[in-house]
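Lab notes, practical 5.
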Amino acid sequence: MTARLLLIDDDLRLTGMLGDYLRAAGFSVDTAPTLAAGREALAREEFDALVLDLMLPDGDGLDLCRELRGSPRTRHLPVLMLTARGEPMDRIVGLELGADDYLPKPFEPRELLARLRAILRRAGGGGPRSGSDEVLRFGRLEIDLGAHVARLDGRSCDLTGYQFQMLVVLARSPGRVLSRDQIMDALKGHALEAFDRSIDVHVSRIRAAIEDDPKAPRRILTVRGAGYLFARRQDEGDAAPA
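Output from the prediction step:
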């Protein structure tokens, strides 16, 4: 089935070039030059992924990203944000608001295509899992691989597709320290990202969703200088999962 993309960017030359390139790669592509036009398209149609520029003539793409993550209808829509801003903090803020990936301008169309395919694989369940009916249980936390959702005390946790897959990677190796490189490799990500703060930002978001106190985590622990560890025992009285 052809994946349908929405590209929101006011650079008409860029959107024209990218639209042609992505269509040639097998995607269906709609474009919007403003936030207002993008909102209208999102309200009217269903898309498989969004490519979103941060700097638009009628506002900031971060505002739209925040709106999407706050709506049940678009909460899990994969978002790849584009930014001409060179500051790492802009990227970090975008990831904290729920973007699945980012790409600074200028970029190679081939890299954008590779990143799009990666986030679509993760959103479609192509990440690190086996057995669509499998449920991983750790005390009050359960990770339902078939439904693609994590639940704490029976309530769904607010995670993006990328964050859910990262949680699965960690939960499949309870009690084992995973480095950032190992996490990125398991997610089929880009090796260079292991050297920035994207992993740490996503872990922070996961903790906000699954921890009772994200500032004193019991489920995902930081091992300084080594990486992250998913705890076998997370709640008092828990038995270690098989």
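Observations recorded by the TA: The two ends are 38 Å apart (CA to CA). The chain is about 35% helix and 20% strand.
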